[in-house]
């Protein structure tokens, strides 16, 4: 080691020896608390979406991409739709953690008993009633006797469509109900084997986009949409603006009035808070822009949901991201948010330790000097108690012992701030040596005079 490092203001080795055990103890306690107080979020979550080519499936892919940036794998599980998603959430053995669920299809008591929570409303899902142009459909009562596809029971459409028929004085038996999935039902409509089909979906769905531009296929105009929204609280009145599909071709050629339930994100209440934060933030990015039926920043929100919105999501929609996440990476902010109790406790623990470690450090350094005082004191006792007959052998032996002690003391490495202790020890060694020499010289003449006296 270079000589420049031999003389320092403090001793790193002594500091490690004194503070090391306490540091290890604190780290161990922090690790135990990190594992037990609030476990770290899982790296995988299962999201139930919808049918192939549905808006739910498209949005599910966007959520998977958003969470993948944070190292979270989102497993997408297809389903028939909202109703099946809800049933999977109610089943604790389904493996589904979070799902898209449509307003109006939720049994509030069952959801409460199962511990489900809402992350808020994401977008409106208009009821799209497409029919063959030859049918000239202007009133829903004209559906009597027609072949209408409403989708499988796993979706929320069959229940919703039955309610719509009932307020128009029709029974389900008055209509030839088909329950094909959306893709094969679209093929059936184009081939003329059914007269109409009903979707409830965001306009992002590929089938919606295609049917809006298909010649010979018309969209039903719910001219009484406002009345429907008053009769059914889960429905809202939305307008498909003229030209929104294709301005150049003026599609659609007029404003269409539609009725729309709202899509929500519903999760199990034991879903890790960090994952809830990620889904809520992703929802703000995915659904926060302007769209066919929404203005900029209108969605997501805490409205239009039958299940109470979890406080973390409601706070995000009101105030934006949590304070720490505005200035730190998500994982670092999440760590501090989860471990703040431990950090406070750690601060309370470090305060008394900070008062104990410095005295221990001082004692540890000085002990390298003080332990030689014990041997120095032993030498003094020997020379004080030696009988006259052994002085000639004891004094030289103790002088040799002092030389050995001094040699070892000279090899002691000590911080400069404690150098006075070392120099004081070396002075005391020299003082004892002088005392031995003085005693030796003082007693030798006395013995010579005693020997010269006559008997």
UniProtKB/TrEMBL annotation:
InterPro entries: TRAP_TAXI (IPR011852). Pfam families: NMT1_3. Keywords: Membrane, Transmembrane, Transmembrane helix. It comes from the Bacteria. The keyword Transmembrane applies. The chain crosses the membrane at residues 12-34, 339-363. This is ABC transporter substrate-binding protein. The lineage of its organism: Bacteria, Pseudomonadati, Pseudomonadota, Betaproteobacteria, Burkholderiales.
């Amino acid at each position: 080691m270079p000589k420049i490092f031999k003389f320092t203001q403090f001793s790193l080795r002594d500091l490690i020896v004194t503070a090391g055990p306490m540091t290890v103890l604190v780290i161990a306690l922090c690790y135990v608390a990190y594992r037990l107080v609030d476990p770290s979020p899982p790296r995988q979550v299962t999201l139930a979406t919808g049918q192939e080519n549905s808006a739910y499936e498209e949005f599910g892919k966007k959520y998977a991409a958003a969470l993948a940036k944070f190292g979270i794998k989102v497993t997408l599980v297809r389903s028939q739709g909202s109703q099946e998603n809800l049933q999977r959430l109610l089943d604790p053995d389904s493996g589904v953690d979070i799902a898209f669920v449509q307003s109006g299809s939720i049994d509030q008591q069952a959801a409460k008993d199962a511990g489900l929570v809402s992350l808020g409303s994401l977008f409106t899902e208009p009821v799209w009633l497409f029919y063959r142009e030859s049918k000239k459909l202007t009133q829903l009562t004209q559906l009597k006797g027609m072949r209408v596809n409403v989708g499988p029971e796993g979706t929320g459409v069959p229940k919703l469509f039955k309610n719509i028929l009932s307020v128009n004085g029709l029974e389900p038996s008055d209509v030839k109900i088909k329950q094909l999935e959306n893709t094969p039902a679209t093929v059936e409509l184009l081939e003329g084997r059914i007269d109409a089909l009903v979707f409830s979906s965001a306009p992002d769905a590929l089938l919606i986009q295609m049917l809006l531009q298909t010649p010979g296929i018309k969209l039903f105009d719910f001219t009484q949409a406002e009345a429907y929204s008053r009769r059914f609280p889960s429905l809202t009145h939305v307008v498909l603006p003229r030209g929104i599909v294709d301005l150049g071709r003026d599609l659609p050629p007029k404003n269409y009035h539609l009725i729309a339930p709202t899509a929500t994100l519903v999760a199990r209440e034991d879903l890790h808070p960090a994952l809830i934060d990620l889904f809520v933030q992703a929802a703000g990015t995915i659904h926060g822009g302007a769209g066919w039926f929404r203005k900029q920043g209108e969605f997501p929100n805490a409205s239009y949901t039958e299940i109470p919105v979890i406080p973390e999501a409601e706070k995000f929609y009101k105030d934006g991201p949590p304070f720490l996440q505005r200035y730190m990476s998500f994982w670092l902010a999440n760590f501090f948010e989860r471990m703040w109790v431990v950090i406070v406790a750690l601060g309370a623990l470090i305060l008394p330790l900070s008062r104990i470690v410095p005295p221990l450090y001082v004692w540890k350094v000085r002990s390298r000097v003080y332990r030689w005082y014990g041997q120095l004191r032993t030498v003094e006792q020997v020379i004080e108690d030696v009988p006259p007959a052994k002085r000639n052998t004891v004094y030289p032996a103790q002088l040799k012992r002092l030389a050995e002690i001094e040699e070892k003391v000279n090899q002691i490495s000590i911080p400069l701030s404690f150098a006075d202790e070392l120099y004081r020890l070396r002075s005391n060694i020299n003082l004892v040596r002088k005392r031995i020499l003085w005693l030796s010289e003082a007693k030798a003449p006395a013995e010579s005079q005693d020997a010269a006296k006559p008997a």
